[in-house]
Amino acid sequence: MGKTEELSTVTNQDRKWCSETLHIGLGDEFSEILWVYQIVKKKKIQVLIAITKNRLFIIQKKAFGKKAIKETLHLLDLKELYCHDDQEFKLIFHPNTTYRFSTPITPSLTKNLMSRVTEVTSGFPPQMLPNINMDNGRYDELMSDMPIIDPGEGFLIVYIAIRDYYNYTNKIELQSEMSMNETDLQVRKLIKQSIERNEPKIDLDQVEFQSEKEYKLILKHLFTALRFNTWFENLKFTKTNEYVSNFLMLFAGSFWYYHPWVCLNFSNLGLTRGFSYLGEQMINVSKRIKEIGLTDDEFYETNEKRKNKKGNKENNDNNNPNKEYNSLNNNPNNNIHKQLLETLNLQYAEQKNKKKKNKKKKKLSKKAIEKQKKIQKEIERRIEEELSEKGPIEIILEDLNFSKNNIDSEDLRGFCKIFKYLGTNCLNSIDFSECKLKGKGITILFESLIKNIESTCTLNDINLAENKFNLSATKAFIKWFEKLKCTPKEDLIDINRDLNLRNSNISILHIIPVLSFKHSRITTLDISGCGIDEASATGLSNVIKNTDCLHDLNLSATNFPNDKFGLLLSSMKANINDLQFFFRFNDNYLGVEGAEEFKKIVIKDQKCFLIGLEINQNWLKSQGIKYICEALEKQKIKSLSISENVERANDGEIAGFALATLLKRNKHLETIICRGEDNKYIGAEIRHLLIELIYNSTLKSLDITGNKMGNSGCNCLANAIRNNISLTSLKFDENDFTLHGFVDLAENYHWNDSLFDLQFPQLDYLNTKKIISQLIFEKKMELENLLEKNVKSLKSNIDKNHEKKNKNFKIIDQNGINKLKKEKMEKNLMNTKKKIEK
Question: What is the pLDDT of residues 292-350, one digit of tens each?
């Protein structure tokens, strides 16, 4: 080991030496070198450590050689650090940086270095101070997740972990594998915005990756930066990307080991495989590996082997987690056991290389190979004992979203092993919707949930929409709910479970017992598209009559038998716990007769039991809408959706009056949705509802899209917007507006103070074009008439002036002629006189 000397007095020569070595000129940066260490070996300086006010530098001399430096950087995964001529490297010291020390050097050096770094950072606020953890060259158990690699004797290694990506890319001088480009700037901007807004979320959907290489590098840098940051809680990566095949491996191998988030959102990635690997790594990194020491001497006979034993013990303390991390990135199939064995083999080979530097490597004898195998078996046995005694660290996973991925059943089986390692009452929601799971996959999922009922009993949200149940899957589903009986009642007090089985092909008759379990605590049930026969309808009605929690029911597109609709509605009304129901019954065939029956049941006794109703696409016609509206006049209903029920426009008068009357008499309504589509719309008669809206002060949201009410309805809507004081959301697109109607709306909108969600409509292009053409033609004619009038006036003035001028000219000409005549006469007279005189 090299001799360590502290330079207590820093001279200008020392500063100059530092500056020249680091290729930095003497300036403010090196004007105050607070402290310098030099490590001497064989009277030659091997390493110089210099600390200024804001930086820490480590300088390796040529004696170590180019190869040693490269190996050091590779082992520490610091390839990006800026190197000077492959002879020395420097690490920048700044706030929000974690420093870890692995020191084969004397403890006094470590203590002095720590105290000096602490002294240097004394001026920073507490939240900006670096994290320094060292206990006489050993880590605590809690801080042992960082790589501790000893590349040799004689110098100090400082490992820097950056706490956020913004500092990682801006504060450290990098010799990067990729130059900074627009994509990298986008990622850094997202991280910076998240930090500035104090929102611990990153949405990578906003980033467009240009190539697979760019994708890998940016995610590598991102995970390297974030894995030490306990502040971020949620990573959103839902957009389908051609490079997502690498995403799970990068995430599991490079990130999860250091920072397991509580939310996994990998929806809409289009992945088929990779989830099993993700689950395997999540389990591996949760296992707590304690000190595994071999104390018996039976495997170690020589002093050299005893030294190896000591080295193995130290490396088992420290290096195993790091070896696991490195191998996770390089080889997905490695497990903990293989990694430990590889570590020992590597250390054994290094010791042999040091001892026999210039000699050819000899093959191990059979006896040595057998002993090595015995060592490996012993290590494996002790690992198993250690894990069985102390167990793994619990995985904290609350929300799991794998929706819209084509997940393979066997791959799902591998991932579901993580449920064994979840904390008690941990998992809150699972979303496997649109994963194309068939009966086998669903069975695997629920069998795993059953085996780990303590961790999964608190599931609040189960979404298995658009998957295909079979009989075995249904049985596993029911069995999980039966197992909930064993759960302590106090754990289920606050459970309100949402169950989404939309288009899942599940038999409703089979799951009726599940709905009747009191411990099921299902409050929201979506079985739309599943199909309900008469027996299922009768059983479901009985469940609803006696339930104490199920109050949100979606029976859309179930082909519900009409003769059982009255029984279902009566069961809601007769509920023994007087629950208020939100009932969704879209895309069935209720018709006018069913609407009339609805009115009779609801009006009888005037008991309030509906707070929301969706009854779209039920062929109600205007008369059916009238029956529904009359039935709801005295209900405490807050939301009504009654779209696409009127077959043709000339049938809309009754529907328009009915909706207006309901809005006038029911003071609880907050939302009305009455959309139209194709030939199913109310038409201009929707104006009756809009006229009533002028005087209403309770409605907050209105959607009348697609009703083709034209400019006359638009005029009524403009008046409503001008005078209504409660409406906050309005949708009125596809209503055959022209420019006149839109201008009318715009002129009245600025008088409204309540609307903040207003979707501007699409104008009728053809009509608008005709209107604009007509306006242009009218303006053109007006201009032409004006121009013609002005031209005529101007021409008249010119003519008058010309005539006047001509008249003056004529007067002048006549006078001239008379004068000439007079002169000629006078001349003739003179000539005559002369002739006479002769």
Answer: 333 323 322 333 333 344 444 444 444 333 333 333 233 333 343 344 445 445 545 55
The amino acid sitting at 260 is P
Q: Strands (DSSP E) along 272-402, which ranges?
A: 399-401
Whether residues 106 and 215 fall in one domain? no
Q: Where are the alpha helices (DSSP H) in 121-274?
A: 165-170, 182-197, 212-226, 247-251
- What's the one-letter identity of residue 222? L
Do residue 157 and residue 213 come from a single domain?
no
- Domain membership of residue 108 (yes or no) is yes
**Cβ neighbourhood burial of 234 (10 Å; 0-12, 13-18, 19+):** middle
Same domain, residue pair 50 and 150: yes
User: Does residue 221 share a domain with residue 151?
Assistant: no
Mean pLDDT computed over 359-363: 48
Distance separating the N- and C-terminal Cα atoms of the chain: 163
Identify which has the larger pLDDT, 223 or 128. Answer: 223
User: Residue 109 falls within a domain, yes or no?
Assistant: yes
Of 228, 255, 286, the residue at which a domain comes to its end is 286
Q: Give whole-number Cα distances, 531 to 502, 510, 558, 614, 666, in Å.
A: 10, 13, 4, 18, 34
In a domain, 34, yes or no: yes
Q: Is 711:681 a contact under the CB 8 Å cutoff?
A: no
Instruction: Kindly give the interhelix angle for 439-451 and 471-483, rounded to the nearest 10 degrees.
Output: 20
CA 470 to chain centre: 33
The Cα 67–Cα 87 span in angstroms is 9
Instruction: Assess if residue 726 is contained within a domain.
Output: no
Q: Round to whole Å and give the CA distance between 160 and 146.
A: 10
**Nearest to 452, CA basis, from 535, 394, 371, 511:** 394
Cβ within 8 Å of residue 267, ≥6 positions away: 238, 401, 402, 403, 404, 405, 431
Q: At what angle do helices 591-603 and 621-631 cross, to 10 degrees?
A: 10
CA 27 to centroid of chain Cα atoms: 46
Bridge pairing between strands 157-162 and 97-102: antiparallel
* Distance between CA atoms of residues 279 and 453, nearest Å: 18
Whether 243 and 151 share a structural domain: no
**Domain end residue (candidates: 270, 286, 302):** 286
Query: Which range is most confident: 131-135, 374-378, 452-456, 647-651?
Result: 452-456
**Amino acid in the structure at residue 645:** N
CA distance 438 to 468: 5
Query: Structurally, how many domains does the chain consist of?
Result: 2
Q: Do the beta carbons of residue 257 and residue 228 sit within 8 Å?
A: no
Residues 6 or more apart from 623 whose CB is under 8 A from it? 592, 595, 654
The angle formed by the CA atoms of residues 223, 228 and 233, to the nearest 5 degrees, is 75
Return the amino acid letter for 67: K
- Who's near 635: CB < 8 A, 6+ residues apart? 602, 608, 609, 610, 666, 668
Angle at the Cα of 319 (from 317 to 322), degrees rounded to 5? 130
Is 144 in the same domain as 271? no
Cα separation, 383 vs 621, whole angstroms: 73
| pLDDT per position as a tens digit, 419-432 | 887 877 778 899 99
Domain that holds residue 241: 203-286
pLDDT at 344: 46
Structure tokens at 367: 């006896």
Q: DSSP letters of 44-65?
A: EEEEEEEE-SS-EEEEE-GGGH
Question: Distance between CA atoms of 491 and 488, rounded to whole angstroms?
Answer: 6
Tracing tokens 């002169």 back to the chain, one arrives at: 823
- Pair (15, 92) in one structural domain: yes
Two structure tokens written together for 473:
């899957």
Which of 350 and 30 is assigned the larger pLDDT? 350
Pairing assessment for the beta strands 581-584 and 552-554 based on DSSP bridges: parallel
Joined tokens for residue 195: 């930090």
Residues 106, 220: one domain?
no
The amino acid that residue 739 corresponds to is L
